[in-house]
Structure formats: C-alpha cells, structure tokens
Automatic annotation (TrEMBL):
Residues 543-557 have a biased composition (Polar residues). The lineage of its organism: Bacteria, Bacillati, Actinomycetota, Actinomycetes, Kitasatosporales. Residues 543-564 are annotated as: Disordered. Keywords: Carbohydrate metabolism, Glycosidase, Hydrolase, Polysaccharide degradation, Signal. Residues 1-32 form the signal peptide. Belongs to the glycosyl hydrolase 74 family. This is Xyloglucanase. It comes from the Bacteria. It comes from Streptomyces violaceus.
Length: 780
C-alpha cells in the first residue's frame, strides 16, 4: 500500500453538523410528498465487494458483552461486527455531502456499563482547505442504528498522521456519563459529564503536548501538534455510579509522556520515573495485576517509526521496567512499537506489534510472562530463511498479494503493515484480530502459538469496504458489468459483484484514476495509474474485456503521473486511437495501443479528455472553463465558442452512448474565494454551445445507463443538488424530470468522483465514494 494518505474532496463549504437522529440500514422508502419537482424512488444499495482496501485504524471490543466489537477507518467511517454473519455492518452511511469529513473516525468508545451506547470521534483533516467541517462526537444509544451529533470547536484528524494511536475517546467504566477526549493541535484534554451531549476543556490538565512531525510546515499535513493521546482508567478505584478516581493520560511530548489523576480528574501529576525520548502509541491497563503497559515510538506513524520501546509500570510502586522484545538500545531495533493488547483471561499474556517495518515484514510479538520473555510470529536465520508460526488465508481478498512474488525473505501476502490496532478478544483467548493498511486479519486459535502449533490467520474484513474510488465504467458487453479504478489498491474487473477478484496487473497500479472502453468495440479497455510493484508504466490496454493487459511500450516525454481524475485517458469509439493527458507531459495521441505517442496540438496542460461515443474521429477536452473539440482523432484540438461553464471546482463531463455530439458537463464550486457557475449543462452540438439545467443547483458528476422501457434516450444518473435536495438522481427523459434514488439514510458522504449506469440493466447505477468503496443500486 502506498504511504500516500487518502485525500477527500476539497473546497466545498460545509453546512454544519445535523443534530437529528437518523436511522441506519433501513430500506429506502418512496416519499409521498415531493420536494420541488424532485420525485423519489425506492432503491436498494450494496457494495461491489473488494473486502477491505484501506487502513483500519482501530478495533475496539466491548469489555462487558461478548461478541460486541467495532472497527474504525481513516476515511470510510465506522462498523460493527455482526456475529451471526461474521460481516461488518456500516454505521455511518447516513453522513451527508456537507459533513463528508465526519467519515474520518479518529476514535470509538463502546460503553461497558450500557453496551447499547457507542460514540465516535469524527473529523478527517485538521486542514480547513481539505475539510472545512469542524469535528464532532457522534453518539448512539442503540449500537449505531441511530445517531445524534455533538459539534466540537476544533478538528480531529481521522486521516492525519497519528491516526493509529490508541483510542482518544473513552468512557469511565464506573460512571458512564463521563467521557474523556484527547485532542491534537494544542487543544488539550476535554471531558463530558452528560453522555457526550456537551464537552468542556479540563483546564487543570497541565500539558497539551508539543510533538510536531515537521515544525517547518505549520499549515501543512505534518505541521500540527499530536496533542493529548489516550486516557486509561484504573477501574478498581471506583464503583458503579461513582467516577473512577485514578486515571492515566498519555501525551505527545517526548519528555513528559504520562500523567495521572487520583481524584477523578480534578488534579494531575507527572508520573515519576517515566521513560523519555519517544511518544506513547498505545496504553493498556491490567486491572488484575495493577500494571500499565505502554508501547512507544519515535514518530506518530502510521507510515514510519524507526525506534521505540515497550514499558511496564507497576502502579503500586511506580516502578518502571523496560520489557521491549528488542530494546531501542539494540542495533536490531529499527522500528517503533504500536499495537498493544493483553489477554483479559490471562493478564500476563500480552502482544505487541512493530509500528511499521516495510522490509521484510512487520512483526507480532507475544509474551506469556508479563513481558519477561517474548516469541515472534516469524523468525529469520542468518541465511534470511523465515520460519513462520502462522499461515494466512486471503481467499476472501486474493488481491492482497499486490500481484507480487517477492524474493525471500519477503513473502506475499505480508503479515501486515501499519499494524496499530492489535486486539485479543477479552472473552476468548483464542480469538484475535488486528488491522493493517489494507484489511483486518484474525484467528480463532491464537493460543496454539504457545504450544508450537500454527496460528491460522485469515481475512476478517468481510462487509468492510474502505476504498476511495477514482472511476467506474460499465461496458455494454463482456463478462464483467463493472470495472473500477481504486485508490491504493489499483482496481478490479468485477465479474461477480459479491466477490473480491484479482487486482489489475501487467502493469500493477497503486491507484487507477481513469478507465475508458471503446464504445463500438467494448472489449478494448484502457487504464492509467500510479505504478507499483516494480512497474514504471502508467498506461495499460486490454483487448479481451480486461482478462489480460499489456503495458505501454513508451510514454509521452516527461510523464510524472496518470493525469486529471477519471478523465485522464480516452479511447475512440472504434478503439484505434487513444488520447492521454498525463501529468507532467502534453496531452498526446497514439494509434498503436500506446507503443508511440505524439503530442496533440492546441491543448494546454492539465486538461480532461473524453471521446465521442459514436464518431471515432471526435475527441473532447476541457480545462479552466474552456471546451475543446478534435475532429481528427485527437491530433489537434480547437476551443469551441461555448461560454458560461465553470472555471474551477470538481468538473466532470461525458459523451452520451449512441448520440453523436451529445455531451453532459457537471461541476463548479460554492467556495467563496473561487466564484464560478455550479450546475449541470448539456451540449448537442459537440460542445459548440451548452444549455444549463435550471433545476440543478449543484452538479458534480454524470453518467448514463440503459434506457427505460419504451424510451430511446439513455437513463441519466448524477450526484447533484436538485431543487434544493442533495442526492443521487436518475432521469429517464433526458433531464426534464429527476427522481432521487437514494435517501437520507444512504448518503455515503462525498460521491462526486464517478458515476455510471449499467448499459445492460435498466435502473442499475454504480458510483464511487471517498471511503466506502463502490456502491451499486437497483430499483426495488
């Protein structure tokens, strides 16, 4: 997985967090009362399954009820595990367009006094340009079926550095009205005394933290203070209904990592004798022995960390013991420690993970004597031969090899990376799960480790879809109805929408922003992306409906990336000519499947390109409010006379299958610093002029599918705001009227990247999300 963070859409003004409770996973229902001219239609939405795909930053077991467990992701919301199906149920699909940042979950708290209560600390970025919405606490009294929102006066950073550090939001195990929240950015420690309805700063807490990854980047991704990290309770110092007296707080300050209160948070002291030099990633309290365990590292993670230690504090005597499997003083220690857990059934048993070790693999360590001695999930001899205490079944997500066959001592799939949440089930010593940068792994026979047996690890991410989707296409013929371009994990040919398949190969991409097929020869498909696994090519072509691929033999001079979004590459209607607008090089054309490239004339850098779906000689381009037309197969382009188009924002356009010169364009922005038209337009003269749809207040992406029965024009699908209502819409009459096909319980946050209908199934729509994978919907 690329160490590049998932990036949300940027720049839309937020409308603020809603406070009304919204039901979860209920079926869509047709409304009897139209809003404006917008009608509604009942749809069922599902994922085209990839299974995982992104960073699972936290797994949290309830400490009272067996089988109650939650997972959080950096951009894809939160989930609860359904024990009957062993699938994860999404809990945050109700989050809408204007609050899209609330799908970045920095912490989950599940209540051991009242297991029906669960809380999420939500907020994706600390950078206003990336996420204009302030953070919030989302609170539920029915295990995530419905939610209420508590706005916060700061941002949290669910997809920022440090997001894998232990849970920043916790509930007092004795008096569950009390919650604590550790906050980054110098905002300190906050507390609620009313089940999370309100929060106030704990003014007596002495240290807001000071660890900044890059002090020279104060307004950037690495420039904020990691802050107050984690609160852990010694629940022995309270009783039911009374606030726990003793609690510990970890802080991102290499000289002062741990504070303690013995009067329920009224006053605080620096714990004496504490280690210095690293920041704490996870803290776990043993309520039987009275020990506090800390895993520390020299960075915030999750992509780095080269030194660290594991510490054990005897809280009765304030005696510290370094119990690192490999101490930081050793030359063999080239990693920090992060994921940390103890076996609640046998508290002397604990496990810890390396924060990251890209080569040859991350390591899990296990101790059954309180950290006095350790064994490893794998050992390596002087000949670089690895001996494994485990095996891994990836049949649920076979792409986890990244199409790689590395040389030993590396193996595929890896045991993991970014393994910052490692959890033994508090009620079952054999049940264990851990998150990685791409999935959840788990086992039911963990204790076989101790007797020399093989621990059977398998993918446990079914139902959890955490990918950012760059593009989707649906060709009219072939074994696959859907092809997806996916961030971090390349993309997939979906011959079965209910099963993960092999990642695109030859070349393998870390991300695929653009795909296109030849409308009149749809077995021919092109894709562009960011190469990985030893590849250098950014372009691949298939002539057998995506079964096999061929990389380009050359590229336009200067290419640094695949290009602009899902409109970076286009193939002519009959499949002979390709136009590619890569980053770092001029838009160029090829008539030999990418063997050679020639710069197109008349186009500036950074444009988007599309092909006409009927006339092989026509290509279109767009940039900065100007529309361009080519009538010679992309060799040359000229600006058309079209005016009034958006000059900024998220602008996407498509040509209509079966209709020469018919183009729809959506885009614009409400950002006040960039005033520009925002809506949906149509041209029927190859872009010479465009007419705006007045009902569409904000248009963001458009696509086409099979026509309605009795109709000749394709069904049109869009993610837009129409007559004041934001949603996913379908029109069966070329945009004269619109039907909203999602509802407020199925909004999927930001859906402005890509959408298409299925040309073979009327009513079916596919669209991409920024964290919830590929969604597809069918009429009920």
């Amino acid at each position: 997985m690329s160490p590049t963070p998932h990036l949300s859409r940027r720049g839309l003004l937020a409308a603020g967090a809603a406070s009304a409770a919204l039901p979860l996973l209920a079926p869509s229902v047709a409304s009897a009362r139209p809003v404006g001219e917008v009608r509604r239609a009942p749809y069922t939405f599902r994922n085209a399954e990839i299974v995982g795909g992104g960073f699972v930053t936290g797994i949290v077991f309830n400490q009272r009820e067996p089988g109650l467990v939650y997972a959080r992701t950096d951009i894809g919301g939160a989930y609860r595990l359904d024990t009957a199906s062993r699938r994860w149920l999404p809990l945050t699909d109700w989050i809408g367009w204007d609050e899209y940042g609330h799908t970045g979950i920095i912490s989950i708290a599940t209540d051991q006094v009242d297991p029906d209560r669960v809380y999420l600390a939500a907020g994706t970025y600390t950078l206003p340009d990336w996420d204009p919405t302030m953070a919030a606490i989302l609170r539920s009294t029915d295990r995530g079926r419905t939610w209420q929102t508590t706005p916060l006066p700061f941002r949290l950073g669910g997809n920022m550095p440090g997001r894998g550090i232990g849970e920043r939001l916790v509930i007092d195990p004795n008096r569950n009205k009390i919650l604590y929240l550790g906050v980054r950015g110098g905002h300190g420690l906050w507390r609620s005394t009313d089940h999370g309805k309100t929060f106030a700063k704990v003014t007596s807490f002495p240290n807001p933290g000071n660890f900044v990854i890059d002090p020279t980047d104060p307004d950037g991704y690495n420039g904020d203070n990691q802050g107050v990290l984690q609160v852990v309770f010694d629940k022995r110092t309270g009783r039911a209904g009374r606030a726990t007296r003793t609690l510990y707080v970890t802080v991102a300050d290499t000289d002062n990592i741990l504070y303690r209160s013995t009067d329920a948070g009224a006053t605080w002291e620096r714990v004496p004798g504490q280690p210095t030099g690293f920041i704490p990633h996870h803290a776990v309290f043993d309520h039987v022995g009275g020990y506090l365990y800390l895993a520390t590292s020299n960075t915030a993670g999750p992509y780095d960390g080269s030194k660290g230690d594991v510490w054990k504090l005897d809280t009765a005597t304030d005696t510290w013991t370094r119990i690192s499997p490999v101490p930081s003083t050793s030359d063999d220690n080239q990693y920090g420690y992060s994921g940390l857990t103890i076996d609640r059934q046998n508290p002397d048993t604990l496990m810890v993970s390396t924060q990251i070790q890209w080569w040859p693999d991350c390591i899990l360590f296990r101790s059954t004597d309180g950290g006095a001695s350790w064994t490893r999930a794998w050992d390596m001899d002087t000949n670089s031969e690895r001996t494994l205490r485990y095996d891994i079944d990836i049949s649920a997500a076979p792409w986890l090899t990244w199409n790689g066959s590395p040389s030993l001592p590396e193996i595929a799939p890896k045991l993991g990376w970014m393994m910052e949440s490692v959890q033994i089930d508090p009620f079952d010593s054999g049940h264990f799960m851990y998150g990685t940068g791409a999935t959840i792994y788990g086992t039911d026979n963990l204790t076989d480790w101790d007797s020399g047996g093989t621990v059977r690890i398998s993918v446990r991410a079914q139902g959890l879809e955490e990918t950012s989707i760059g593009c989707v296409i649906s060709p009219p013929v072939g074994p696959a109805h859907l092809f997806s371009g996916v961030g971090d994990v390349g993309g997939f040919r979906h011959t079965d929408l209910n099963k993960a398949t092999k990642m695109y190969d030859n070349p393998t991409f870390g991300a695929t922003p653009a795909l296109d097929y030849a409308e009149l020869a749809p077995h021919t498909i092109v894709r562009v992306g960011n190469p990985t696994s030893g590849w250098t090519q950014h372009f691949g072509i298939s002539t057998d409906s995506g079964d096999t691929w061929t990389p380009s033999r050359s590229e336009p001079s200067g290419v640094t990336g695949p290009g602009v979004d899902d409109q970076a590459v286009a193939i002519s209607a009959e499949g002979r000519r390709i136009v590619w607008a890569p980053a770092g090089a001029p838009a160029s054309w090829s008539d030999d499947h990418g063997a050679t490239w020639t710069a197109s004339e008349g186009l500036p850098a950074g444009v988007s390109v599309r092909s006409d779906r009927v006339n092989p000689a026509k290509f279109y381009a767009y940039g900065s409010g100007v529309f361009y037309l080519s009538t010679d197969g992309g060799k040359s382009f000229k600006a058309t006379a079209a005016t009034g188009l958006p000059t900024a924002g998220n602008v996407r356009f498509k040509a209509v299958p079966g209709q020469e010169g018919d183009i729809w364009l959506a885009g614009g922005t409400t950002k006040p610093t960039t005033p520009t038209p925002y809506g949906l337009w149509r041209s029927t003269d190859s872009g010479a002029s465009f007419t705006r749809f007045e009902a569409v207040d904000e248009g963001d992406v458009v696509g086409f599918g099979k026509a309605a029965p009795g109709a000749t024009y394709p069904a049109v699908y869009t993610s837009s705001k129409i007559d004041g209502v934001r949603g996913i819409f379908r029109s069966d009459d070329a945009g004269r009227t619109w039907i909203r096909i999602n509802d407020d319980r199925h909004q999927y946050a930001w859906t402005g990247n890509t959408i298409t209908g299925d040309p073979r199934i009327y009513g079916r729509v596919y669209f991409g999300t920024n964290g919830r994978g590929v969604m597809y919907g069918d009429p009920k």
